[in-house]
Amino acid sequence: MNPYETIRILKGIGEKKEALFHKLKIFNMEDLLLFFPRDYEERVYVEDLSKAQPGTKVVVQGMILGPASQRKVRSKLSITTFECQGETQRFRVTFFNTPFIKNALKPHVTYYFHGKFRWGYGTYNLENPEYVDKAEDLLEQRFAAIYPLTRGLYQRDLRKAVESALEMADFIEDLLPDELRQQHGLWSRQEAIRAIHRPDSMETLLQGRRRLVVDELLEVLAGFARMKSNNTTDIPVVWDEETEVKMKALENSLPFSLTEGQQSVLSDIQQDARTGIRINRLVQGDVGSGKTVVAALAQYLFHLQGYQSVLMAPTELLAVQHEKTLKGFLKDFGVRVVLVKGGMNKKQKDNVYEQIRNHEAHVVVGTHALIQPDLTFARLGLVITDEQHRFGVEQRKRLTEKGSRPHSLVMSATPIPRTMAHVLYGDLDVSQIETMPQGRRPIQTHVVGNHRLKKVFAFIQKEAAKGRQIFVVSPEIEQGEEEGFAAEEIYEKMRKGLFRDLQTGLVHGRMKRDDKESIMKKFADGEIDVLFSTTVVEVGIDVPNATVILVLNAERFGLATLHQLRGRVGRGDQESWCILATDTENEKTMERLQVLTESNDGFYISNKDFDLRGPGDYFGFKQHGLPNFSLTDLKKDQEEVETAKTLLEQLQQWPDQKPMEKLLETFQSKLDFLD
Hints:
The protein contains 24 helices and 21 strands. By secondary structure, it is an alpha/beta fold. Among the domains are: 97 residues, CATH 2.40.50.140; 193 residues, P-loop containing nucleotide triphosphate hydrolases (Rossmann fold, 3-Layer(aba) Sandwich); 156 residues, Rossmann fold. The chain is globular, with a radius of gyration of 30 Å. This is ATP-dependent DNA helicase RecG. Pfam families: DEAD, Helicase_C, RecG_wedge.
């Protein structure tokens, strides 16, 4: 059978149900079998409910004793109840908002129910259970797959469709030669797919998963290996004695000494230039580690070669900050820095575009506005992307295509472990700035309950009285369904109350660009004491006078975001504080927040975030323009990563190159899909 055969060939899938499958991105037979379960439930048959643990799911036999009783509690809640006789005791079966069930279950007929049960009102009760009239229909599969769903589709729909597809699974192609597969103790792909959907034991499930994880990793590693092998460039970089002297002059002009980490990254870039390859490097550095200085030195290197460079930032605030910083470093060395941003009038836009087109502008800074088709460069030699995970594949590609295979640096202040970086950014060489500039004080971080906020606000007033500035960050702009501190609400309350004698401001993502810039500029200029905001201040604002950041409902933020927010303070020489306010009683959430009190090291924090949340949640693969991993957990699957690396080396040397070609084809198709 053709793997791209539509799922309409399966019994029970008509036009309406097919549309629901499409919402899950299931269009054909291959999509269906590669739509993996999110979890499994073990089905256990019990005769006596008194011997089972309340709150757990069980399979139990029961005969319906009579007609159902049905009542409507309120407009959107109806309850249907059946009394049943089990093997050892009576119990009750309750269904919510399914009135049709009243006629589906027949009196004096025995059914097998699977559901969570509890004890209450003097009887055992099963709520919304599955039901069949043959025990084997429930118990044949001990570990039942639980799939992600969309409204209108049920587990039985997915299970039935997958079961039918597995019966025709002869179309599943195995790319791995049998010799290599057996050498690494891997199951066939067909066996693995069957095991992941219908495991008969935990061992079966783990073996099936292992093979499919290796396949996922192989696709990505093969794709990145091909991208890296094409790392040629038409832009030579000469690092001679004259270049060395001029680069040293810029370095000596800086108002500080470069850290060991910055020197190391520059050494990596210098080595790339001398080998004549296309520079294609990820620069990871913690908040405040000095990545912009490295960018400035790299841009000056390309200026000396007669080339322009461009730096793309994810927000206008950050782009403006970069323009100001780069001008400060480069203005005395004949380098003209210009800013491209949205909202420029036609005269401003034409003027800047002409400077770039005529090579009067040497360094160009901007946001997504840089990828406009009418913006052309005279000689683009270096592309730098800041916080690159915020850009998609297509955006980066369109910027790079404005030059003839220009060199590339990508910068990230959300560091990830080096081993994971090699998988997630396999086409890039990796450099890390692991040392912070001298004089940066550690930021004191405290997790406090909301009942202590009065004391926190009093502390903020004391800091403001000293002339310091404060951030107050909320998770949302206005009050939503979930109770908490909304930025607009807390701003209005505080500016009229405790902070009425202070200068306050509010900034969030829904504001007009000019209004947002005006507020941020006032804060940067010291005209605002307390700035209320959402996470729009996560990047792009450098206020050395800010000493306190209070994050409300801190439990709603990831560790990476909280660490970035914390980096908004402590940028001067004063003692600084980050206060995380929460009323959560969840132990895991508190454990996660306490990580920030243990360390100011972004690499340590990212490792802990991987441990606690897993890379899928933490990393946001699609935002990085990478194929999404369905099964792989980079923190837990290190053995599979090594297996995939070894297999890739073997396949690259294998006489038959069809497996490699197919891997590359699959990788490219997924990138195209994301674009």
